[in-house]
UniProtKB/TrEMBL annotation:
Role noted for this protein: Component of the exocyst complex involved in the docking of exocytic vesicles with fusion sites on the plasma membrane during regulated or polarized secretion. Involved in polarized cell growth and organ morphogenesis. During cytokinesis, involved in cell plate initiation, cell plate maturation and formation of new primary cell wall.
Main location: cytoplasm
Subcellular locations according to the entry: Cytoplasm, Cytosol
Cross-referenced PANTHER family: EXOCYST COMPLEX COMPONENT SEC15B, SEC15
Protein name: Exocyst complex component
Exocyst complex component EXOC6/Sec15 N-terminal domain location: 55-223
Metal-binding recorded as keyword: no
Record-annotated Exocyst complex subunit EXOC6/Sec15 C-terminal domain positions: 421-771
Superkingdom: Eukaryota
UniProt entry keywords in alphabetical sequence: Cytoplasm, Exocytosis, Transport
Keyword Transmembrane on entry: no
A GO BP annotation: Golgi to plasma membrane transport
Family, as annotated: Belongs to the SEC15 family.
Amino acid sequence: MPRRVAPDSYSAAGGDAERQDLHQLSSAICNGEDLGPFVRKAFASGRPESLLHSLRHFARSKESEIEEVCKAHYQDFIRAVDDLRSLLSDVDSLKSALSDSNAALQSAAGPLLSSLDAYLEARAVARNLSAALAATRLCVRVLELLARANAHLAADDLYLALRPVDAVERDFLDAAPHPTIRRMLLHLIPAIRSHAERKIAKEFSDWMVQIRVASRHLGQVAIGRASAARQREEELRIRQRQAEEQSRLSLRDANSSSIYSLEEDDDSDDLAAAIAAASGSGAAVDGILGFDLTPLYRAYHIHQTLGLQDRFKQYYFENRKLQLTSDFQVSSMTPFLESHQTFFAQIAGFFIVEDRILRTGGGLISRSDVDALWETAIAKMVSVLEDQFSRMQTANHLLLIKDYVSLLGVTLRRYGYTVDPLLDVLSTHRDKYHDLLLSDCRRQVSEALAADKFEQMLMKKEYEYSMNVLSFQIQTSDITPAFPYVAPFSSTVPDLCRIVRSFIEDSVSFMSHGGQLDFYPIVKKYLDRLLGEVVDGAILRLVEAGGLGVSQAMQVAANMAVMERACDFFFRHAAQLSGIPLRIAERGRREFPLKRSRDAAEELLLRLLQAKLDDFMILTDTVSWMADDPPPNGNEYANEVIIYLETLVSTAQQILPIQVLRRVLHGVLTHVSEKIVGLFLSDSVKRFNANAVTGIDADLRLFESFADNQSHLFGDTEDLGANELKMALVEARQLVNLLMSNHPENFLNPVIREKSYNKLDYKKVATISEKFRDSSDRLFSTFGTRGSKQNPKKKSLDALIKRLKDVS
């Protein structure tokens, strides 16, 4: 079709504006554009007639254009009409033919269509039946799984019940044959899982309650097994020490090899031991049921099946942490001494259970979680121990708790837990424990000394001898004495030995099993304090109090000699209990720790004896210093003193050791010598003559004879013993020898003086010589005839006095 253009006559219309508007309108109509803007513009300008006129003019221009087109195509149109008429005739013929064919087809295809309809209907029915059968089979399978789930739920087999539920959800939920069934499954599956979760949560809660009771029993059993193992070790060490002692004494018999036989340790599991222990006790069966970890593992398995294992792990950890925190509560109404075993057993059982769960729980709890719980627990236990130890004022209480804590450490160390902080607390309070122990021993020692009458101890039976003598190795002979046996010591000695031995055992018990292997130096340090401060100090106070008589002081001195042997036993006993060889302990031996009280006791005895001798020396008032004849048998006081000394020796040799008796006799005779010299120096003696000196010489001979008679008591040679006692009288003997000498001026000869008068003092000799000289008119007339010739002895004595005055 030729392109349509606006007619030229329209372009000739009047007015440039109208022509322009007409041109735009024509372009819009030709291009099929919207004429709305033109209409609105015409009405807006108030000239719709112009628009209408333009539209009419455009229509007329198009009519003429149509006419021209029709004229141009008229022949073609005529031919097309003729073609249509011929086509119409052909169509009518075709229509008739089609009608005949349709009639023939209808008559031929009618039965076939009926068969096809029946086939299609049957096919639809078959398809529906197949779908129904498939749905029925699906429903049967679903119902079977749900019935199995119901049966397992009824039997409380939650895991077996959840498996068919999971199968239903996985295989049949999306393929549900009917929306109703799908809705039912969507409701039932979460309900069953929720029921299983509630059910297993209740079982877990019940298990948490049971395991708390069971943990306490388990901890008690485990700590008890550790205590039994420690007891077996102690018995083995005792047998080994006995064997070593027999070896040292060469008294082992053919059966001694059995002493070293080791008993096989039952290293079975603590949980199994707890169950075995409970099987023999009907009262404990209920508690043992809590040891079953099956409910916990079942709960964990069910939560794994539900896909909630992480949540259950956290839930388990938080609940166990809360349970552990509640276990830390220490009742203020019950003394810790009564509740400490339950407190520590609960914690021990808790971590034994956690160790079992860590090893067999399939990842329910991790090592880091257990370590975190243990760090919390040990920090709390350290805090509780620090607080309780700071309040305790009884050593035995502290020892009981320490022993149980050490057993707790041994028990939990077997499971890999670090217990060093607990042992550090025990070490920190070591000094306090020993201070309390020393305080108790100080009280016991004071009571023992106050209760003793300081008389020799009588033992009527052999068991008394074994208990009071052999058990402390203070016997002087391996031969068992005849009974009744009178011991050389009083009841104080075995009492003190028991106190010290108990102290050693308590000290070793506290120091042992505390992580420190070589603790003998520490035990020895506190043993030195006990002996040096407590025992020595108590005996020293007793001696210095001044309430003892001669017999009591003698018994105290005898006790000290026995205590010296006992001290050797104490250090050996400490070494044996500390597990070190005796040779090492003997290598570090020190001097007698009770030396001060021993010396004080001997000094007291000597002072009392000297005071008693002073009473006898009062009889020296009867001595005639200017006698015409010397006394035939010595002076009276000397006989009294000799009788007393012989009585003293007969009594003392049954009690005092030889060394102590020697020292006492030496001191007594020294005092006698000093008293004799003091007689010559006394102001009451203004002058004396040779007869008086001869009497004193006779007295000295009695004392020297007494000294000779005691020589058989000493283990040394008789001559050495006699000389030692006679040396105590040397000052008096040298003075008498000088006064009886015909040449007293020889005292001035250094050689002679060193040999014969080395114990005499210049001033004493001068004073005594002057008294001897003052009576020369009467005294020295007896040395010769009464003539004008001067006596040589008087002359020598005068020379001595003159020289001594010059020296002084």
